[in-house]
Amino acid sequence: MAAVALAPRSRPRRSPLRRVGPWLFFVAMLAVALLVLLPIIIIVFTAFKPVAEVNAFPPSLLPTDWTLDNFTRIFNELPFGRLILNSFVFAGGVTLCALVFDSLAAYVLARVDFRGSRILLLVIVASLMIPFQATLIPIYQLVADFGWVNTFWGLIIPRAADAFGIFFLRQFFLSLPRDLDNAARIDGASEFRIFRSIVLPNAVPALLTLGIYTFVNNWNDLLWPLVFTTEQEMGTITSGLTLLTGPSGIIPYGVMMAGSLIAVVPLAIMFLFVQRRFIESVASTGLK
Amino acid sequence: MSASATEAPRRYRPPAQLGGRGPIRGKAKRRLTIIGFLVPTMTILVLFVFWPMISALRLSFTDASGFGREEFIGLDNYVEIFTDPGILRAMGNTVLYTVLFTPTAVILALVLALALNSPRLPFRGVFRTWLFLPFIVSLAVAAFAWQYLLDPQVGLLNYWLQGFGVSIGNVLQDPVLAMPTVVLVAVWKNFAFYMIVFLAGLQEIPTSLYEAARMDGAGPWSRFRNVTIPLLGNTTGFVLIIATIAALQAFDQIYVLTGGGPYQSTQTVVMQIYQSGFKDLELGFASALSYVLLIATLILSLVQFVVTSRGEKDAG
């Protein structure tokens, strides 16, 4: 059947290899993709394994008895509900603040001509080159002086605006046509109204891109929550999970994988819903 | 609505951007709004980006320790950085990490991006999604998963490798293999990011160029060599530099997996900053080390800037 169906389409010069080629290619990529996914697969399956199977030899991929024990244990060993909440407040708070403050500044830098605007932009772009790890100690001292260690303020405020976001949004605002805001200005609209009703609604794709980027980075960050929180209760999922790998020797893999799964699921859900934008977000944030 | 309702009688005066003498509403009011827009952002940037930069530089010339008086000690911290064998080791390790990480991650990303860009691959979209997944996993969580896979007793990957007659032992306790292992975790987590950037670069190459090359009788290798490579030069330069900067900042998975050991073999600069600054409270010394990192990053960023702007000139 297949041969008959294909016969009229195949041109005389097409060798059999050329027809099988794509499928060999496919199988090779499948092997690579499975290998790449192995750590994620192991997290998912191990999370549902009973302790005996987690530490069994020879090791297996799939659990024979599916159980939720690891999930109950992680909520007993760590204040995990609190950590989940903290992660949402921290990553969500930083994202929200950064979007508001960055877009306000970006609007001014893209739309208003004032003396010193070029220098201001240059200074902001230059600060992009400073890795936060290099200024962590003075930032910590400042946060400590404000009495913000172990508070959401300390986690969120130092990151409530960032140079990258300002630059990224400015570039996007520049690409929006100015006719609309000039018309609004002639009609007597205030700058804030132009910003809120004309520029922002047109910048939703850029805001979403920047929002995803900021949320994922903060949700996954380890060093930041590690430094600004010393109490277990104020940590994030990412920093809290590292407490499980003590120097005690035996590593509770099952519990760790259950915690890891919980850490990954919110981002995975986000990824599924806005997959195309998610990937574009990475491409465009990378290109700027 | 309310803003325009309270408006005084409207008179047409072209806005500044149109070459008029000033904005429609009071110049002072508009200026106030602009300042209001900038104040929150600039306050945060000044307090938490610019001031810390100056503050770190000042601290780096002192023996600040978190308590007691801090004395000005000149370049002593910097002298220590470049003479202390432990610190030199950490810098050497960071270079080794970078040399292992950057080429591996970038080549893997390029190869997979080329594969994903090929129209001959069935289900390209599905593969793109799959291969991107590691990027949403944090380095810490990636480290847990790899630790379990490579566990000498119960690790699945270790067990499979033994089936092929390869015995790797306890990689995280091995002074030679620990470094490649923490690099492996970072490559796994980050290659997807570079891959997507490459993919975006590949999609910008006009297909007409490939068709023209084919008309001229160029084979697949020649098309890759003479069309793809030159036109991807900018993207490659960019990816190489962001990968190198990321490598200089290696911390998360090392903190989780080895804590810098065994025998300091995975101790990196950022691990050392964390240890000196937040565990040993040698704030002055840690600040000096931070500045070394800052300057290294700055140099790389400037190189990137020069490379990118040169590329743009070429294109234009």
UniProtKB/TrEMBL annotation, chain A:
What range(s) does the ABC transmembrane type-1 domain occupy?
84-274
Signal peptide as annotated in the record: none
| Keywords tagged on the record | Cell membrane, Membrane, Transmembrane, Transmembrane helix, Transport
Coiled-coil residues are: none
Q: Which PROSITE patterns match?
A: ABC_TM1 (PS50928)
Q: Name the Gene3D superfamilies for this protein.
A: MetI-like
Set out the biological process GO terms recorded for this chain's protein.
transmembrane transport
Q: Name one Pfam family in it.
A: BPD_transp_1
Q: Which residues cross the membrane?
A: 20-48, 83-107, 119-140, 152-173, 194-216, 250-274
Q: Does the keyword 4Fe-4S apply?
A: no
User: By its UniProt entry, which InterPro entries does this protein fall under?
Assistant: MetI-like (IPR000515), MetI-like_sf (IPR035906)
Quote the subcellular location field of this record: Cell membrane
UniProt family annotation: Belongs to the binding-protein-dependent transport system permease family.
Name of the protein: Carbohydrate ABC transporter membrane protein 2, CUT1 family
UniProt source species? Herbiconiux ginsengi
From TrEMBL, chain B:
Q: Which UniProt keywords apply?
A: Cell membrane, Membrane, Transmembrane, Transmembrane helix, Transport
Presence of the UniProt keyword Ligase in the record: no
Sequence intervals crossing the membrane: 32-54, 95-117, 129-149, 231-251, 288-307
Location relative to the cell: Cell membrane
SUPFAM superfamilies attached to this UniProt entry: MetI-like (SSF161098)
Q: Which GO terms describe its biological process?
A: transmembrane transport
Q: Where is the ABC transmembrane type-1 domain?
A: 91-304
Tell me the Pfam families matching this sequence: BPD_transp_1 (PF00528)
GO cellular component terms given for this protein = plasma membrane
Q: Which domain of life is it from?
A: Bacteria
- Its chief place of residence is membrane
User: How does the entry describe its membrane topology?
Assistant: Multi-pass membrane protein
Identify the stretch(es) annotated as Disordered: 1-24
Return the similarity comment. Answer: Belongs to the binding-protein-dependent transport system permease family.
Identification of the protein by name: Carbohydrate ABC transporter membrane protein 1, CUT1 family
What organism is listed for this UniProt entry? Herbiconiux ginsengi
